[in-house]
Amino acid sequence: MFELEGIAHRYANTTAVTVDTWRAGAGEAWLLEGPSGSGKSTVLHILAGLIVPQGGLVRVAGVDLATLSEGARDRWRGRTVGLVPQRLHLVHALRVRENLALAQALAGQPVDDARITALLEGLGVAELARRYPRQLSQGQAQRVAIARAVINRPVLLLADEPTANLDDAHAAQALELLRAQAVEAGATLVVASHDHRVRPLLPHVRALPPMVRAA
Amino acid sequence: MNIARLALAYLRRRPLSTALVVALLAIGVAVVTLTLLLTHELETRLQRDAAGIDLVVGAKGSPLQLVLAGVYHVDVPPGNIPLAAITQLRADPRVTRVIPLSLGDNLRGFRIVGTEPTLVELYGGVLAVGALWTAPLDAVLGSDVARATGLTVGSTFAGAHGLATGGGEHEDAQYRITGVLAPTGSVLDRLVLTGLESVWAVHEHHPVPADGKADAAHDAHDDDREVTLALLKFRSPLAAATLARAIDKDTEWVAASPAFETARLLTVFGAGVDLVRAFALVLMAASALMLFVALAQALEDRRYDMAILRTLGATRGKVAGVLLVEGIALAAVGTVIGLLLAHGAVLGIAHWRPDAAPLAAAAWRWLPVEWAVVALAMGTGILSALWPAWRASRLDVAATLAEG
C-alpha cells in the first residue's frame, strides 16, 4: 500500500530522520514506535505528503509523491489520507457536523449528510452533531477527530500519539476505534506512539531509532 | 461547507470586531456618498436653473444677491430698475433675449413673479392644464405650487406682501388661475407666474395712498414703471463680458453672471464639503486598520486551524482565501450598508424638509462616482486582508502540527 525507501530528512538543527525501507500492505495496522523525538511525527507527515523528504522514495497507493506539485499533493492528501493529529484539533467556529462537512468539501467531495450521521452514530456521538468543539470532552473530541479522518474513506489512516493523556481503558478503546474505522474504510492504519500499551494492540511494528545527530 | 461558509463562521465567532469594522466602514462610506449626492444635486440644480441666463441685470447691490434673487428665487432683490432699461437692453444687438422679472409678493411662501412667457420657454415649461396668462391678474402655477396649495385653474387667491409668508394680503386684488405647468425639475416649479402688468396693478394701489386714484394701473406711464431685474442671453460669451463691464461702468445698474457667482459660492461651500469628506476618509482608513488587526489576530489564533485545513486537502490558496473572503465580506457589507444609509438619508431629508422635497429623486439616483466609493471601500478591505492572507499561505503545516 505504501513504500518508503531510503528516506533521509534533515532539519536545520542538523538532526536527521532516516528510514531505509518500510513497506506496508493494504488494510494492515502498524505501530510506528520510537522514543520521544525520534521523528515519528516527521515520518507520518512524510507519508501524508506534508513534508517532502530531502532524499528517498515515498510511494503511497501507487503514487510517487515526489512527482506531484504542492497543490496536487494537497488535493491528493484530501482524498487519500486521514490524519488524527495529536492535538485533537477541531475548527472551533464550526459545529461537529460542519467540521465533518468541511472535511468532505476540502477533499473535493459533495457533502454527504447521511454519511456524516452514520459515522457519528457508529462512533456513538450522534447526539453531539450540533455542538461546538469547546462543548466536547476529550474522549468525545477524539471520536469526532477520528470521524473527520475517516469521513472521506481514506486508504491511509494516520494517528499521532492517540493514547497520550488517556487511562488504560480509554487508550485501549481509542485504539479499538481506530482499528475498527480503518477496517470499515478499508484503510491501512499507522499509529505513531511511544506508549508501550499500544504495542500489544497492533499486529505490525516499525521501530524508529533515536534521531541521528548529523555531522 | 465551502471557503465562504467557513469564513462567515469565523466572522460570527467574533461579532464585536466584525460589527466595529462594518460600522466604521459603513459610516465612512455613508458620509462620503452623502456629500457626493448632495453636492451633485446642488450643482445640477444651480446649473439647470441658470441655464440660458448669461447675465442678470438689476439695481445696484451685491451681484450674488441679484443672482440668488433673480435666478434661484431665494434672496430679496436689491431694488428695482426702470422699465426703460428693458427697452434699452433689447435694443442692443449683442443681446438675443431679455426676460424682465418683477418680484414683490408671494402666495403662501411661493414667489409671485411678474414676467413674460419667455420665462416659461427658458425652463422648457409646458402647461399641464389651462392656458398662460393674457390679462392682468391672470396667474399660472408651477407644479410644486399647485400641489402644495391645492389650487387649480379657476381658483382665485390674493397675493401677500413680501417674498416670504407673513405679510398682509392684497385683499382687493384677486388673482385668477388660468393654468398649471407640468413639472420641469427647475425653480419654475416653485413660482407663481403672471404678467408684469399684474404686479403693477397690485402695487400701484399702495405706494402713493394719498394719490386717491383707485385705477392707477391703467393710468401709469411707461416712464414711471419699474421691473425688479432682467435675465439676459447673449450672442457670444465675449459679448457677455464686454456688456457686463459697460453696464457696471456706465449705468446705475449691476450686471451679475450666474455662472461666476455660483462658482464663487460653491468654492466657499466646497471647502466645508472637503473637510467632511476628509473626516469620512479617516473613518474608512480606521476601519481598514481595524480589519487588518482583526485578520492579523485571526492569523495567529488560527494557525492550528489552518494546518488542519491543509491536512484535510486545502491548498495554500484556499487557506489564504478564507482570510481574503473574510476581508472582502466585511468590506462588501460595510459598503452596501454605507450606500443604503447615504441614499436613505437623502430620502429622509427630502421627506422631513418640505423645501428639500426635490431631493427625493436624487435618493434613487446612482451617480457614476459612487462606483469610485465602492472601489475605494472594497480596495481598502482587500488590501487589509492581503498580508494576513499571504502569511496564511506560507504556513509550515508540519511544524505547526508538531507544536502540539
How would you describe the overall organization of this protein?
The complex is a heterodimer of chains A (215) and B (404). In chain A, 33% of the residues lie in helices and 25% in strands. Chain A is α/β, with parallel strands linked by helices and 215 residues long. In chain A, a hairpin with a 4-residue loop joins β1 and β2 (15-24). In chain A, the strands form 2 sheets. A 5-stranded antiparallel β-sheet of chain A has the order 5-4-1-2-10, with helices on one face. Chain A has helices spanning 40-47, 70-80, 96-106, 113-122, 138-150, 168-185; strands at 2-10, 15-24, 29-33, 55-60, 63-64, 81-84, 156-160, 188-193, 204-207, 212-213. Chain B has 404 residues and is α+β, with helices and mostly antiparallel strands. Chain B has 15 helices and 12 strands. In chain B, the strands form 2 sheets. In chain B, strands 3-4-9-6-8-7 form a 6-stranded mixed β-barrel. A two-stranded antiparallel ribbon of chain B has the order 2-10. In chain B, a hairpin with a 7-residue loop joins β7 and β8. In chain B, α2 packs antiparallel against α10 and α2 crosses α12. The chains are: A alpha/beta (215), B alpha+beta (404).
| DSSP helix fraction of chain B | 55-70%
Task: Give the mean pLDDT of chain B.
Answer: 87
Order of helices and strands of chain A: EEEHEEHEHHHEHEEE
By oligomeric state, this entry counts as: heterodimer
Radius of gyration of chain A: 17 Å
Distance between the termini of chain A: 34 Å
Structural class call of chain B reads alpha+beta
Order of helices and strands of chain B: HHEHEHEEHEEHEEEHHEEHEHHHHHH
Largest sheet, strands/sense/barrel of chain B: 6 strands, mixed, barrel
What would you call the shape of chain A? globular
Q: What does this entry show, briefly?
A:
Chain A is of the alpha/beta class and 215 residues long. Chain A contains six helices and ten strands, in the order βββαββαβαααβαβββ. In chain A, 33% of the residues lie in helices and 25% in strands.
